Amino acid sequence: MRLSLNQWTTRAWTVEQAVAGCVRHGVESIGLWRQDVAAQGLAATAALIGEAGLTVSSLCRGGFFTAPDQEADNRAAVDEAAALDAACLVLVVGGLPGVAPGEPLAGFSRDLPAARARVAGALRTLVPYARDKGVRLALEPLHPMYCADRAVLSTLKQALALAEPHDPAEVGVVVDTFHLWWDPEVFDQIAAAAGRIASYQVCDFLHPIPQDVLLARGMMGDGVIDFAPFTEAVLAAGYTGDAEVEIFNADLWAADPDDVLALTKARFAAHVAP
Amino acid sequence: MRLSLNQWTTRAWTVEQAVAGCVRHGVESIGLWRQDVAAQGLAATAALIGEAGLTVSSLCRGGFFTAPDQEADNRAAVDEAAALDAACLVLVVGGLPGVAPGEPLAGFSRDLPAARARVAGALRTLVPYARDKGVRLALEPLHPMYCADRAVLSTLKQALALAEPHDPAEVGVVVDTFHLWWDPEVFDQIAAAAGRIASYQVCDFLHPIPQDVLLARGMMGDGVIDFAPFTEAVLAAGYTGDAEVEIFNADLWAADPDDVLALTKARFAAHVAP
């Protein structure tokens, strides 16, 4: 299984620097973030990727379907994924309507079933557009601690049920070790996801959880996750894509990105690769 | 449905003060914690409870089956639950072996399936002892953010599977809104838990999550949970016990416990009672 660098693992780098870093370290695949692509320029990013001969394993991200007026932005995300020939557009579906990450509660909805229905409806609306552009959508279940503010989609089983009405070539799922490691059904669900796995993302779950729960992600080997069973299960399910290392971590972001990428390669070989 | 005060909602109170508080506020049921019972004295606590005519809706807690040498302490917990005539002994099953709440990782196991097997084995060992003492054990699934350090039991479905080999009168489950609100299957599982629900605990899930994730619990109405569907589901499943309000919250712990109990009663009536 091939390593892909999600660029937020080396967040201090611009797209241009991350592409150069991948080339320098012999990494052949990269996961990009829309805001960084925008800062570099979409056409310039596509040109850099092409010149370097990199695969784009994912574009992060679309979704937030429970927010008002999300449709135009999601179409733009699809357009960008198409322009970058990304293997998938990752969708973080959004939390309870009106609940914003980091913001105090005010004027929000507690109706979780309704939020989930809204997600399913918005997905149905987006699929034909993505199909026309040749972009595969990838539903990402997030750890339940992000249910209120980021994703009312919490398990792989739930993601598969949401994807089920759609062609697997058009709507896949993301298997992210950080979000799913605790789930007693996760290996059964990975087997059930055969043909639907659009992205395999790896990073560790830190203990104790740091003050900003978004930054509870750690370098593989620094947390509590046993990666080998995940890699085996994803491969057994027929996944042929890259393993994308995506780590949001304050200490890694403060370190020299070249050191972080070298460490990523070493830890990937020791913990994740089969 | 009757309100029970879990004494850690008014944590500054001793057992004696909490019992008096319940009497003063017309609360007829209380959930006790072992360390506070020990500070008061077991026989003294039983006498106070008897004089006040309170029900003990639960004793918290036994479990931590993944730690070494847990057996003697769990038998002591059973004895205490019997002495207090508690409706159940709550079991928090423990996390990965060697992972301690709040402590850095060192010398621990990442083998989650093995930890779960260890829990099932230790439960089998404890059940006959509890049966002899007439104590009902109550398996509590905890929010997945506590999987590493407190409970490798994360969903109600998983708790029901763990309880399944045992008589429902001997091994039940805890339905705690804080831990389960995000689970897309929770209402189906509550229906499936008919006859197994030993305790219904309520408190809200705060947003944003505070620095100490253990204190992400909030007064009903202060967080993101819609309580009415939980109360309806628990009643529809045939639960006839109390609804125990258990809130770990730094602001509430700093407030006057009488004010907290008055607020608890008001919020319970507004959000939780059917």
From TrEMBL, chains A, B:
<keyword id="KW-0413">Isomerase</keyword>
<protein>
    <submittedName>
        <fullName>Sugar phosphate isomerase/epimerase</fullName>
    </submittedName>
</protein>
<dbReference type="InterPro" id="IPR036237">
    <property type="entry name" value="Xyl_isomerase-like_sf"/>
</dbReference>
<dbReference type="InterPro" id="IPR050312">
    <property type="entry name" value="IolE/XylAMocC-like"/>
</dbReference>
<feature type="domain" description="Xylose isomerase-like TIM barrel">
    <location>
        <begin position="22"/>
        <end position="256"/>
    </location>
</feature>
<dbReference type="Pfam" id="PF01261">
    <property type="entry name" value="AP_endonuc_2"/>
</dbReference>
<dbReference type="InterPro" id="IPR013022">
    <property type="entry name" value="Xyl_isomerase-like_TIM-brl"/>
</dbReference>
<dbReference type="GO" id="GO:0016853">
    <property type="term" value="F:isomerase activity"/>
</dbReference>
